[in-house]
Amino acid sequence: MVHVTITQYHWSRPLLQTFCLLCAVLFSFGQAVCASAKDIDTLRVETEVFADRKDVPIARSLTLFSSKVAWDFLDAATLDKKSPDSKSANSESFDGEIILHDPTRERVLLIDPLRKVKTSVDTIQIERLRISLSKWARTSDDKLICWAGGPHFDNSVHESVNIIELVGPRAQYRIEVTDAPTQEIADQYHQFADTAILLRALLHPGGIPPFPRLELNKRIASKVKLPTSVTLQIDPRGSLIASGFSSVMQRHLHSTHRIHPGLRADDLQRIAAAEACMAIAEEVSLAAYTETETK
Predict the structure, then answer these.
(1) How many CA atoms lie within 13 A of 155 on its CB side?
(2) How many angstroms separate the CA atoms of 27 and 262, rounded?
(3) Whether pLDDT at 140 is above 60
(4) Dihedral angle of Cα 194, 153, 140, 12, to the nearest 10 degrees
(5) Distance (Å, rounded) from C-alpha 163 to C-alpha 23?
(6) pTM of the model
(7) What are the pLDDT digits (tens) for 26-66?
């Protein structure tokens, strides 16, 4: 079990990491090929994340739901700040880390294709993090952190037909939603999104606790909806701000999402390639995986 130290001085990176996965879900409406005429639990998710209202994304990811699991592919080139001009939804640019969300086996598998290593995190570790993080947040002197520890957000939520807003001390979440194909898809996405957010909190501690997003995820699923746009605005005043931290990233983060209830032929090829990569990757501990990742 990896020891997790929560600190306000690592606040910017986890905020971006959380948006890379979760907050955001951009689905391609291009020509799609369903995996099977009988396979109704497929979903394609492409995510782009923007900061400070700029047009160039700071992160992109592709999430494919199939056979009760979710494959999450990170675009490593975006994180390296390469030009996005040559990228498209049909490109092979999602060549970074691969994360397999496997709720049936109660685990998340992280795969690094470049280093050919993998590691797993089970649901017990994630649940322990949820409990300890909530306890820590509720005792914080920072009003935003304390509020974000939950669990009571009812008075902070404002809902309309396809918009859900949650307002707290110095923070506002605004999520636009659309109809999910089925309740099963809405529930599967809800489970994926919750796990992804908590996983990032485990791997990159710090920042706003995830409980406001978990509350929003629950409400979205209960309405049989999926998110199409997520915006987080933060007032930088208060003890959250650390020395040397860019205020630009604190004020405005936005993710755009397009949704398609089916997989394309190249998506199936990508999943097959990920399975092959997973089969040959060396199993290492979570500590070894994350230590090597940062070198």
Answers:
(1) 5
(2) 10
(3) yes
(4) 50
(5) 15
(6) 0.78
(7) 333 333 334 443 456 899 999 998 987 788 888 899 999 99
Residue 100 bridge partners (DSSP): 71, 109
Domain boundaries, the chain: 8-293
175-200 burial code (b ≥16 CB/10 A, e <16): bbbeebbeeebbebbbebbbbbbbbb
How far CA 293 is from CA of 119, 170, 203, in Å, comes to 12, 33, 11
Task: Supply the pLDDT for residue 39.
Answer: 59
What are the structure tokens assigned to 47, written together? 């995510």
228 is written with which tokens?
A: 């199409």
pLDDT, tens digit (0-9, with 9 covering 90-100), for 226-252: 999 999 998 766 544 333 333 333 468
Q: What is the per-residue pLDDT for 85?
A: 47
Q: 281-286: which pairs have CB atoms within 8 A and are 24 or more residues apart?
A: 281/111, 281/112, 281/113, 281/116, 281/117, 281/118, 282/116, 282/117, 282/118, 283/117, 283/118, 283/119, 283/120, 284/117, 284/118, 284/119, 285/119, 286/2, 286/119, 286/120, 286/121
